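REQUEST ID: PR-0412
SUBMITTED BY: lab tech R.K.
PRIORITY: routine
TASK: structure prediction, single protein chain
INPUT:
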Amino acid sequence: MNRRSLSMKPLAASIALMTVAGATLAQEDASAGEELTLEEIVVTAQRREQSLQEVPISVTAFSAESLQKNNITEARDYLSVAPNVGFSDDGGSGSRSINISIRGVSNVGLGEVSTANSIGFYIDELNVGSVSNGTINPQLQDMERIEVLRGPQGTYFGRNALGGALNISTKLPDENFYAEVSANAGNFSTYGGEAIVNAPLSDQLMLRAVYSYQESDGFVDNVNSVGNDNGYEHNSARVALRYLPSDRMTVDLSYTYTDEKEGGDISVPSGVLDQDTQSIFGSSFVAINELGFYPQNDDKVTRDLKERNENAFSISNLRVAYDFDNFTFKSITGLVKSDSERDFDQDGTSLDVLRRFNEYSGDSFSQEFRLQSTTGEALDWTVGVFYADDEIEQFNSIQAGADGSYTNPVTGEVIGLLPPIPAGFRINENNRVFKTKSKAVFGEAVWHLSDQWDITLGGRYTEDTINNRAFDVVAFEGAVPDSGGKAKFENFSPKFVAKYTHSDEFNVYASISQGYKAGGVDFTRSGDITNFDPEELTSYELGFKSELADGRVRLSAAVFQLDWKDLQVQSNFLAVPGDISSAVEKTLNAAEASASGAEFELTALLSEGLVASFAAGYLDTEFDKFDNALIKGNSTQIDLTGQSLPMTPELTASAALDYGFSLGDLEAFVRGEWSYRSEAASNLEAVASEAGLLSLPSFPYQVDAYDVVNLRAGVEAEDWKLNAFIENVLGEDYYTGTGDGFGLSGIRLKPHPRVVGMKFTYMFK
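STATUS: complete
OUTPUT:
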């Protein structure tokens, strides 16, 4: 473990002692007659509103108040405080691009190959996980709650929920008029505003509308006058209608549209060439140094192309619920449309050597029907059917620029980079279509055997049909045969949970559940199709949830074991060494893999207005059998058996201290936060290097441990509030992953500077 990770041990120990002391203080205050308790947290992890403490699932939940107070605006903001959750935000395909890992389960993949996601992403019960840019990172204005569910969620979130699910609930229209407007500003010339209005149109019809605008110059400056900076302009709007035709029926209709326009990637060069680049330009080629490398240079690039990252999403969601005497019928109909366009300086230097252009679009339609009991005493049950039809279309093009050589300014040496080909010469170009049709039947029953024992049995049967094709493929301006293939996969994933409730303050549970991710078909350079197998996961978990000190301390913990079969890992390589036009993408199946770990979360009300929280996770992962690994730039199989999975930090931790108090007629708060991630391998190259199978430098393949400190404060009156924040107070130099590392200046990294800002909100009630 590196120096920085060691330096945090005293802090973690002091926070742990603080929370234990808080429990003691809570008991003393309670005995003095004060009736102070933590606010109950309500979640919908089992598709019905329940107290977080009652749900036998590992969940980290965020209320509407905490989302606003903590300035949570994107996925990494809440993922960073959830135990055993990793993420990589490398700055490619936009500032909000992200790859997520929960308990070691992630998409070990490539941006140009579309496969099922490993983490379920739901907004208002609708699966939004199939989008053109890989993983959606929605705007988070006017949210009711966010839940991070760890472990397979086969019954309710079965589609793409192999490792867990992100369950987001927006605020719904109600019968009370409410409106607010806000303005925010921060460093890097960041400005924005929001408007929210809730209006009852009649006794039966209510409307809620949200609009958000944000712009920024960004924090990476392109000094090349031919290129452009990485500034952005984001617009997002949501309109929701609630119709109550009777006491039994509820209709919710919403439409969300997001438009994100950005310049170049938010990344700087590392000076370390990846295996892919070396396989083309030779192992003796040295990264071109024009402005210095990270971390000495963390805010400047010189790219000669007008780059752009443009992402647009629209989500239409219709939910209809009808209450019968003993059960509820629910229909969820959704349509998700997405578009992503990217113009990218592939060489990453002031030279015009390689240009990359991507145009992706996605359409995802889904329909779910569900019946759910409402008044069961001995039995609660849910049954449902699900259908989805997804289509992702991709256009990818890598073209030659006007510069075929590089002259070293120090030695005068001329280095050839490309053969004598004209600018615009298509080195690689393809059109691809990925189609998935999914059908599922699911059900779950909870038997209340007694006041203390609950037994849950559930399962999901899934049938996926994959139909992929590639056409108009070009390699070095030569035509490559079209290809296409179809495959069908079936799976049944069961679930078993036993829960023992000792008292209202303490329960313990044990669960066994399975998850599934469909297999698929790969394209090959010859035009042939090869299939890869589904990924299957079995999870064993033992946990407890408790409340102590008369409801002023909340503690939960779990231990778990995960066993994979045919874990999917994507890689690419050159079929002909040195020939960039022979690039091949391939999905491999690691025959066996496993993970084990533990996690706990603690919240303590230390005194009136003073709340401390602490969470920690430990994770140990391993490829138990993976002797057919292919590493970027190398077409020879290597054996990674016994090595850790990429993007899986061993230790994760977070802590916060929040104090709310009165200032005359005003309510105020101050809050300090700390989050920590231990070192982790960024990709398969890093895993192979750690195993001694490749001779690669530790930097940047091994992502260093890092810890981040944030400070927040706010004040609120009856009709206005002002919040301010400083994120990354200590100016920690860190990056979370390596992403697409191809380029002449080395693997690109996204820096994370100190961010300062404030937001003023005026409320109309």
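NOTES: Residues 9-31 form the longest helix (23 residues).
REVIEWED BY: pending
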